[in-house]
## 1
Amino acid sequence: MTAVAVRPETRPPARGGAWVVYRWELVKLTRQVKTQVVVGLCVLAPFLFVAALDVQSNVPQDTLFGRWVHDSGFAIPLVILGFAGQWALPAVTSIVAGDIFSCEDRYGTWKTILTRSRSRSQIFAGKALAAVTFSVVTTALLALSSLAAGVLLVGRQPMIGLSGTLLQPGHCATLVLASWAAVSLPVLGFTGLGLLLSVGSRSSAVGTGGPVVIGLVMQLGSLVNAPETVRMLLLTTPFGTWHGLFTARPFYGPLEQGAVVSVIYFLLCAGGAYALLRRRDITGS
Amino acid sequence: MDRSSLPAIEAHGLVKRFEDAVAVAGVDLRVGPGRVHGMLGPNGAGKTTLLTMLMGLVRPDAGSVRLLGRTRDEHGARMLDGVAGFVESPRFYPYLSGRRNLALLADLDGGSAAGRIDESFELVGLSDHAATRVGGYSVGMRQRLGIAAALLRAPRLLIVDEPASGLDPAGMRDMRALISRLSDDGVTVLLSSHDMDEVEDLCDDITIMRSGRVVFDGSMEHLRAQAPDPAFRLSTNHDERALAVARGEPGIVVTLEGDGLLVHAQRERLDAYVIALGRADIAVRRLNLESSALKALFFRLTEGDPAERAEPATDVPEVVG
């Protein structure tokens, strides 16, 4: 240690608020191997999926649009969307959302960041926004990559819709993107769930695995003979509401219901997480 | 108001309970500007809880904290403007380099903190390791990085918990020199430590805690004035005769303990006693300082009757655990 004097300064107000935390969190995320791997998988997995379909003669007939995977490239992103909605999207979003707060417990860094010039509200907002960004970006990447994989490796052939009418390529592309956009809302609901479990449990394992388990339980719940109101309130139900876009006369009611349910899940979970973080005593190392 | 003349820390009636245990039981603390204030106490005394309350990490159940004239209620996160430090060991993101960690913290701080990164690394002697991932740092290097992270904020109040923990002897010496230099530059330092010698070397004032209460609060001179005689371990060729010689010496208390004698005396009295032993043909084989005067007082304050205090303190709730 050398003899250099540090001059005390009169600090101007910290600017940027939550945006500084948001940028700071994004820098951290881009440096993490798990984030890089997930982003890489979102880009590559659809191409690997199409390659795997190519080497086998049978098709996933029990999945919506599964029978068309060799006939139209637009069926590929829809089949992937059907699979992803089961567990992959909740899993992908939870990898960051379920860890973004609990990682500070794991590294013992809460004391480091909460003794700087940012409030807990700013830290929460910045981190939550970073988790939302990751969820939206990975969903968008998976959508674009699966669309690209389908179009590039299978082709831009027209596809038959759920009412038996032929959908032209341009219309198909629009519907595919709209379908993926529709599931971004339940993805946000699972992001909120991950945030809540991350703050509440202080455990990355619970924060990351919890939403996936809850999602699977909800799917099981939707399979049993539950009342319609209960099924409507499950966060997994909105993952299937895009089906209504592919009928001759599209129906948007389930989409709107799913959007409301997803937003409510997000707000309740994120609000709960915020309340827990605000009240928490940071103890231990 | 001129903030430089305000007390750097003013805490009144701080209480913190964890379930049924009271960790801090009505503590008052006042640290004057530019002072180096030590905080001592055995494990579980409540020092760390008190520091975490001062830094806003733990919410007190009762009482108030004012740092550099600011309170949490009035100023929010800006209460910590001009304040830096760490509680327990400083922690960083292990997958990032030391420099990247400090750059991120400087972003959180805003202002001119980013421009002080190189200077801070230089100050703590870590410039050569700035590009290394923190996961590869030793405990001592992380401790130095913790100080560097605090210096980024160019603090007027530095709160540090065991700053020399994990450092080698040279690192401890450098750390003490750095704290002295910061104090010379007008920085107020609150230093929590288990090391009595460190506190004695560095501090102007001292607070000693026990079971969540303050059992002494005052200047080092005041503490020294109250300190009992130091204790020495003495070994002779004939301890029983040495004990008999002690009975004729004023101002000295000698007891047989283990395989030698324990002597409580001021140094002048001890010198006279050793000369008397020589005159009585008793050879001194070993004479060691067992416990300095301050250590003796510390033990008396922290291990004796809890009601026994060197300084009066505020009435506080009963300590449960």
## 2
Amino acid sequence: MITFSINGKEVQGQEGWTILEVARWHGIEIPTLCHHGALEPYGACRLCVVEVNDGKRSRVVISCMYPIRTGINVQTDTPRVLNVRRWIVQLLLDESPESPKIRELAQTLGVTPSRFQKKGVDFACHLCGLCVRVCQEVVGVQALSFSNRGLRKEISSPFHTASKECLGCGTCIYICPTGAMEQVFLRVHG
Amino acid sequence: MSVTFSALENILERYPPSSEHLISALQDVQAKFNYIPPAAMTAVCEHLGVPVSRGWAVATFYKSFSLEPKGVHEIKVCLGTACHLKGGARLVESLERELKVERGHTTRDLRFSLDTVNCVGACALAPVVVVDEGYQANTNSRRLKKFLKNVTKE
Amino acid sequence: MVQVSTALKSNDFRLATPAALAAYRESILAERDPNRTIIIVCHGTGCRANNSPKVADALRRAVAAAGLNAQVIPEIKDTGCHGFCSRGPLVVFQPSGLFYQKVQPEDVEEIVQKTLIEGTPVERLLYADPETGEHVVHDRDIPFYKYQQRLVLSNIGKIDPVDLRDTIAAGGYQSLVKVLTSMTPDEVITMVEDSGLRGRGGGGFLTGRKWRMTAEHGRETPGPVYILANGDEGDPGAFMDRTLMEGDPHAVLEGMLIGAYAIGSSEGYIYVRAEYPLAVKTLRQAILSAREAGLLGENILGTGFSFDLKLNLGGGAFVCGESTALMASIEGKPGEPRAKYIHTVEKGLWGRPSNLNNVETWANVPLIIAKGADWYRDIGTEGSKGTKIFSLVGQVKNVGLVEVPMGVTIKDLVLRIGGGVPEGREFKAIQIGGPSGGCIPQAHWDLPIDFDSLWDAGAMMGSGGMIVMDNSTCMVDVAKYFLEFLIDESCGKCIPCRLGLQRMREVLKEFSAGRGSLEDLEELDSLARAIKDGSLCALGGSAPNPVLATLRYFRDEYEAHILHHKCPAAVCKELITYAINPELCNGCTACARECPQGAITGTKKEPHALNASLCIKCGICFEVCKFGAVTVA
């Protein structure tokens, strides 16, 4: 067992666990968007950031991937952490102001829309990749993937046409946190 | 199509069926056909034993792959820092107007493809435009216009 | 250019022992007459673009036609980049060092007649001192070269990069022999540690320490250990690695071989940008000829050590310069970085211990082995040892590639080697460290160039691109430029990088249009910290640097845009207007013919006028006017 602390409270976890896993085990809340217990962590949304001090230096890491180490001090709500989290939610809220999931997060963190808010957008894919991962890791096919990069990055099937691999099982729709997959699915499945 | 098919076979023969060769094989396809035809993508992925979605992810991620046919002449305007300071952006804009095509696309007559590159490492020649294999050094809109006219005549 | 020796052509040519390599070298040297003239024609990308292959061809023809006495027939050699790109094509006579610049094919006959036959220089092709106008005959006396210390670049411009014989004659692979025959792997690592060599790709991590960590992890579990060279030089304004790969590829190979021996690896990869076709070709040839000679492959030089290399081409993605993205790309995946909470020296390529160094780092290794750690430690500063290659570009007279000891000041680099900014311009800043670096203003130009000083000044060494900026450069525009570069190159995985950089650009766009408020500067700062803290890889983690660094030193320029709606450098389109000064315009009609909008009208030989309501501020009139009559304010 590895002993360390979260927010000053001593906690224990098994070798190979992540900070997020131990935190949730102890009922300590850390928000996430792209995390799912049944899937390998991906580390894209960055909402789960925490500050880790290993005695030498302090740095901001993502708790969903950071392996626990003996003696580290983890803080889940420092100003640095909250600054990252608030900006992520701010950016997401301005991208898709109508998304219930994002609005809920914004309310918790006290974030309101800015002057850069997009108008008339109801499509709210944040590229968390849960659909891509569940299709590969759980369903066992790879009907869809990320395509392009940067601002043009999206979830799609090859050549934006119906995928031969797609079973039509709908697991991707079920796991999608924002509902955006319903639209993407129409093209993937054909 | 049969010629195309044998050209593709030649490429596939070079690679053992393993996913690590995906990028190299697609680079060969790009070099041979000037773009990645969907049929070639499927064939490469099947040969290497990777899902087509992986080939799709790769081909759309890297800028050097094109999913639409490229023009006969490829124009690459360098937008590295040195070229930016010396008017690289002005060159792209004027080429867009001149060729009536947006950057990243090909003219309707398939004569020219206009792309930007984030530094070709020829900063001493700034601003530089690479047309096919040749470097147009210390160039400007007027000289480029003339040069492209000559290219078309050939 | 390809001069494969008869020995290399035969299939059974293989250097089976260190003694065979030594004997081979002796035989090459014995064939050479040290007094024979060698005419070297630079074939770097800059000189090539300016016709150097035609110059070399013309020289070969002219020499053949001149009917020279057998004793004076020169060898004509095509080499890699000499560095002085703004003066190309360059032609240098060895062993004298006679230096000709801006040589064109039509100059060749005169060169043969005067220099080869009569033994006198062609004055008009010599370098002229810009201050005194006096001609300088030899390369070593030209300030651009005089103040450099060319160690890693020492062979470039002297050897034919694709002729292995030339490399061997120059002492190539001697360091490999030294480690294979007289040093244990641990001794090699210790020597590299003692040298203080730090990674040249930007991170500045101690190379020896990285090697030791990889070697240790490699021993812990059975399986392959990988040696990787990063030649995915993506920083805009940088071409050090390109020059090395094109000009002295065997130095990179030899460094990797030494590293492989020290770390215990038998497989390696060189990852090189596809945008560098010549580097790809040269490396490919170098690998083939080294393999043929038995310097790569099984049982190298009969010592029992085996190592071989593959060449992987990058596909136009800057992010692949990041170690984990580079490894993903070699594995045939999109170049998305992954979290490095477990370092690549432990789990890298295919989950195995992997040692990645930049090609310039690798090229330093044979030097350290040959001359010793103490020799190396004597060069440079306390924390940064050795020399560093920089590409000096932008608004500076002598554009090119330079190598200087660590610790040289910015001022010395720009003034003594670079010759200062062009006449009538004013030095404003130097941008160091690529898109993640910073702009350092004139007030700080006594700053020594080393890893730590640059870091403290808000810039970073990066891979060594140095872009000189003068008063025609707008710092808000520069910050926006780098943001756009990084937005284009971001893999898009992390939200803070993908959406945060985009937001920063939106804010800067407002500034460059004269909108926004001072509070926005605070917002930018807070967003910048969120992006730095919240991004996975070095691209996102340092992406806000250009904005932060320009804000630090050029806040007044931001304020001029925001508060006074002015762009002091007259760059930002929304804040400038073009006009024609009737006193200077002589009615040549050049601008009117080129204006895509038809916004310029006038009669021939009469001053023209510009209709501002039609003007799209494309700047073409400004560019074509030879009389300075088009003004921008």
